[in-house]
Amino acid sequence: MQNKIPNETCSPLGDGACIHLSIVSPVYRAENIVEELVKQVKENVSVITDNYEIILVNDASPDNSWAKIAGECAKDPRVKGINLSRNFGQHYAITAGLSYAKGEWVVVMDCDLQDRPDEIPNLYKKAQEGWDSVFAQRTIRTDGFLKKTLSKNFYKLFSYLTDTKQDPSVANFGIYNRCVIDAILSMNDQIRFFPTMVQWVGFRKHYLPVQHAERFEGKSTYNFKGLFRLALNTILAFSDKPLRLTAKFGFGIALFTFLLSIVYFSLYLTGHIKVIGFTSIILSMWFLSGIIMMTLGMIGIYIGKVFEKVKERPTFIVSDSKNL
Length: 324
Known about the structure:
Order of helices and strands: EHEHEHEHEHEHHEHHHE
Oligomer: single chain
Helix content: 40-55%
Distance between the termini: 31 Å
Number of strands: 8
Shape: elongated
């Protein structure tokens, strides 16, 4: 067991607060998990320091998750609750939690206990070796086959479209220095995807293999539609490569058409073509019309994202809070 960090070693923040470690967890459909989550986090964080806070962000869960969070907040002032006005999404809930976190070090983890709280001391110990971000690398994932397959293929596609290296074994779970969190909060992106934002801001990074647990209860609330929408939004937010690929594809089609016209013109001059084909004309029109519509559609999607950005709406709205 490692030695605790005494309270006086915590560097005061600008608002006079002095928190050494913050644990941020978005909560959704977890009314039967909240109590166990808080219990396990306390047990494992207490070996590091007594100067910590646990921030639970209720993403407008339709069950009694907020009531459970409020109950835990009443028991211990170090447990803090944030209740969002509507369901904004997991990564927006994480942003809300980070906005209120005051720790020198911040742990981000899911609420379903697949991110094991007993790995927090290991992440913290590795961070003290001089790393700004230590990512929990799930060497063996306990998710279902479909989710693992979709995740793996998404990260391959995302790596290609953004010209960056993305690791499907890494999600939200990890420990991050205050400088990393401040950099993430300075990003004004309307579309939030925490793993990519951490990678984008840089700093000194390390990957630590961890155990990945089974869900404590229930099943993932992400369905195929939700995962597809998240993947599409993330790709559009962090990459303009789809536009460049569309332009290259259009140029390729134009070049192919030009070369083919030379071939057909040569065949016509040599008498090999005697009747102009109606079918080839119609098919060409449909094909090129499809290319044009696809290109315009891709541009339209990006314009739509720009439209969302210029409205400058808040990324989350808090309706209630406890112990903040």
